[in-house]
TrEMBL record:
Zn(2+) binds at residues 88, 90, 257, 331. This is Imidazolonepropionase. It comes from Evansella caseinilytica. NCBIfam families: hutI. GO terms for biological process: L-histidine catabolic process to glutamate and formamide; L-histidine catabolic process to glutamate and formate. It is found in: Cytoplasm.
């Protein structure tokens, strides 16, 4: 047996954050502060999964006869957590939009740029023009950066094709990346990301077109979720509801970009259609928040977007206290959040959304996993789950929120294999 396929024995973590007992349902309220830490903790992983978790002495004793078989990784003095999960990215696209960033800094707004044919439309033009190879290469680079920063699973949306051929092209690239790259990708169809300029005067015709794409996407097995940008000047709440209800007929589960720029009843639509998650929520109404809590819709908050668009942050504190299970995400996209650092999102969660270090960690691991229906496979360090684990260059869980703006992921294990060592991909 080579060391590569051998068991992996991670030993003596100063703090081993297990998040035990959270696989069944998203974590809410005071439970978001409970990390279920084992001190001097160890994990035995084999065949891609976690086989045992506990105090070092107990695990060492249980596997005493097989220790020589294992690749041993010493985590003395370090924090160990589940691999981070990013539940909302626009991973596959071509190009960048730094000129628009410059325009915004000179006074233009995100929506003005989009309505003038830039923004999402500009990335759509670039993505349509790009070959699969180019899209693959650009997205692969982003995946590498995600992995280096401790992300072991992410969700990726289409939405820069906006026609059958190009939406499928994006989703097929995501599928290929999922096969080739260690980071697991969960795909979302987002044909309703923008109304193409040619349909601006008859948006309902485009809504019909989006719905026509769904059977093909489902038949090819290219996506699990269906998302829509419900926003004033983009898709109305009624159109969003129609699109999300249509997706359900093809087993595409609803997600929604809700109340990002203006209050627009997005949270209410999410609750009504039984969405798995409602994302953004910067301007969600009180009633909308109440309904999300009632229906246990995961609120995926994207503080990078508020930060980068220089707008108000979502009211995470109020949502958590109301009982909405909260997850965090980068929203990686070329317009409103060009970053792969979920670490920075956790830090912004603490600094600008009144979340605590424990809450942001829950939000970026197990609740993020629930937001993409992976709560039973990833997001916590428990027997039977995937061996997705990060060793941090940090002594405890508060440190990674406190030492901000740098990458603190030291070693990353994906499916029980060491894939990042000393901050480099191996
Ligand atoms: N708001 C809609 N979609 C993305 C931005 C996409 C873009 O600007 O390219 C978001 O979630 O922020
Ligand atoms: Zn988004």
């Amino acid at each position: 047996m080579t060391k590569e396929s051998s068991p992996l024995f991670l030993r003596r973590a100063k703090q081993l954050v297990t998040l035990k007992g959270t696989s069944e349902a998203p974590v809410t309220k005071a439970a978001m502060k409970e990390l279920h830490i084992i001190e001097n903790g160890s994990v035995w992983m084999e065949a891609g999964k976690i086989a045992m978790v506990g105090e070092d002495e107990a695990v060492a004793k249980a596997y005493a006869e097989r220790i020589n078989e294992a690749k041993v990784i010493d985590a003395t003095g370090k924090l160990v957590t589940p691999g981070l999960v990013d539940p909302h990215t626009h991973l596959v696209f071509a190009g960048s939009r730094e000129q628009e960033f410059n325009m915004r800094l000179n006074g233009a707004t995100y929506m003005e740029i989009m309505h003038a044919g830039g923004g999402i439309h500009s990335t759509t033009r670039a993505t349509r023009a790009a070959s699969r190879e180019q899209l693959y290469a650009e997205s692969y680079e982003r995946l590498q950066t995600f992995l280096l920063h401790g992300v072991t699973t992410l969700e990726a949306k289409s939405g820069y094709g906006l026609d059958m051929e190009n939406e499928i092209k994006q989703l097929e690239v995501a599928k290929q990346l999922n096969k080739d790259h260690p980071v697991d990708i969960v795909a979302t169809f987002m044909g309703a990301h923008a109304i193409p300029m040619a349909y601006q005067d008859h948006p309902d015709v485009f809504v019909d077109k989006v719905i026509e794409m769904m059977p093909r996407v489902a038949e090819l097995g290219l996506a699990e979720f269906n998302d829509v940008f419900c926003e004033k000047g983009v898709f109305t709440p009624e159109q969003a509801e129609r699109i999300l209800e249509a997706g359900k007929q093809y087993n595409l589960l609803p997600k929604i970009h809700a109340d990002e720029i203006e209050p627009y009843q997005g949270a209410e639509v999410a609750a009504k259609v039984g969405a798995v998650s409602a994302d953004h929520l910067l301007k969600a109404s009180e009633e909308g928040v109440r309904r999300l809590a009632e229906k246990k819709v995961v609120g995926v908050l994207l503080p990078g977007t508020a930060f980068f668009l220089m707008s108000e942050f979502a009211n995470a504190r109020k949502m958590i206290d109301a009982g909405v299970p909260i997850a965090l995400s980068t929203d990686r996209n070329p317009g409103s959040s060009p970053t792969e650092s979920l670490q920075l999102m956790m830090q912004l969660g603490c600094l600008h959304m009144k979340m605590t270090p424990a809450e942001v960690l829950v939000a970026a691991t197990i609740n993020a996993a629930h937001a993409i229906h992976r709560g039973k496979e990833i997001g916590s360090i428990e027997v039977g789950k995937k061996g997705d684990v990060v060793i941090w260059n940090a002594p405890d869980y508060s440190y990674i929120q406190y030492h901000y703006g740098v990458n603190l992921a030291e070693k990353v294990m994906k499916a029980g294999k060491l894939v990042v060592d000393a901050g480099r991909i191996v």
